[in-house]
Design brief:
elongated; alpha+beta; 13 helices; four-stranded mixed beta sheet
């Protein structure tokens, strides 16, 4: 059974009744669901995933108006729910990074994840927060949210400002151009095959991030990035090309094909960017295209951020 389904069924069978019967005065001040860290929050879990951090459980997030006493009583009530459900046991030890289920104040939960309690961030924060963090606070499912406050917070994180998207996309393209269109060939000419593959890795990592941005979503943690990319509508052909670049070698008969694929990927990205109206022309030189995108950014706080600040955020 998928973890998201397990969580939803556990909530409907035990959680909803507990909230409605024991805490009716708080129903408009809380919400419940499953999202955050873990493959189950994406629906990517399988049989192997059940060997750690897998349990029947869910999040209960509270508004700041809920008293500490009520929060404590909710924690006690959550802890008293059945310890086993459909053959799966609740975990006794929290996973690395802290508990993924239970009762939290929403502002504290989101602030710990992102630095923002409610999805309202300044230009620096929007430009430098890692993509996988934005993915974690917008993935999964909300089971119960009578007042809609949790949905509002999640929507705020999902709504990346357009100029931020342009800046982050520009950064991706700059590093793709330098690593793939320029440094890959130079490393090979120097006889540095390992360094050439590192250039490919940089090209693919930034290329994946660009792919998700152009689909108006966020790239998850790296080990789920290819699986998530399979469900994207735009540029659906790119994941297999990225995969070839990573899995193929750097012997002479392979390098020419890799160079061709790098240029093919660059052309596909450039065409999509032009088609979406993000630039005035189709420019296949990704470094030049990067600067073309920056011309559309008017916010000086966003424009003035150094590109290196965005590296590693994917």
């Amino acid at each position: 059974m998928k973890g998201l389904e397990l969580s939803r069924r556990y909530f409907e069978e035990y959680g909803r009744g507990m909230l409605e019967e024991r805490f009716p005065h708080l129903l408009n001040d809380l919400a419940a669901g499953l999202f955050g860290s873990g493959s189950e929050c994406y629906g990517f879990d399988d049989d192997l995933s059940t060997d750690h951090d897998f349990e029947p459980g869910f999040l209960i997030l509270l508004k700041d108006t809920v008293s500490r006493i009520d929060a404590f009583l909710l924690e006690r009530a959550y802890a008293s729910l059945p310890k086993e459900y459909l053959g799966y046991k609740r975990q006794l030890i929290a996973p690395p990074g802290g508990p993924r289920h239970g009762v939290f104040y929403a502002s504290e939960w989101f602030k710990e994840k992102t630095g923002s309690p409610d999805g309202h961030m300044d230009a620096y924060s929007w430009c430098t927060i890692p993509s996988h963090v934005l993915s974690e606070v917008t993935n999964g499912e909300v089971f119960f949210d009578p007042s809609g406050f949790l949905g509002e917070i999640r929507n705020s994180f999902a709504s990346m400002p357009e100029e931020v998207l342009l800046k982050r996309l520009s950064s991706d393209l700059l590093y793709m151009g330098q690593s793939g269109q320029y440094n890959y060939s130079r490393c090979l000419k120097h006889g540095e095959k390992a360094a050439a593959q590192l250039a490919v890795d940089t090209f693919v990592r930034n290329g994946l991030d660009a792919l998700f941005l152009l689909n108006r979503t966020y790239m998850p943690y790296y080990k789920w990035s290819f699986k998530a990319a399979q469900d994207l509508e735009k540029l659906y052909e790119l994941p297999s090309l990225y995969e070839y670049l990573l899995l193929s070698g750097n012997e002479e008969e392979e390098t020419e094909k890799k160079k061709e694929i790098i240029e093919e990927i660059s052309s596909l990205l450039a065409l999509e960017i032009y088609t979406q109206g993000l630039c005035e022309r189709q420019e296949n030189d990704l470094e030049r295209l990067s600067y073309d995108l920056l011309k559309k950014v008017r916010n000086s706080d966003i424009l003035g951020l150094e590109m290196f600040l965005l590296v590693g955020n994917i």
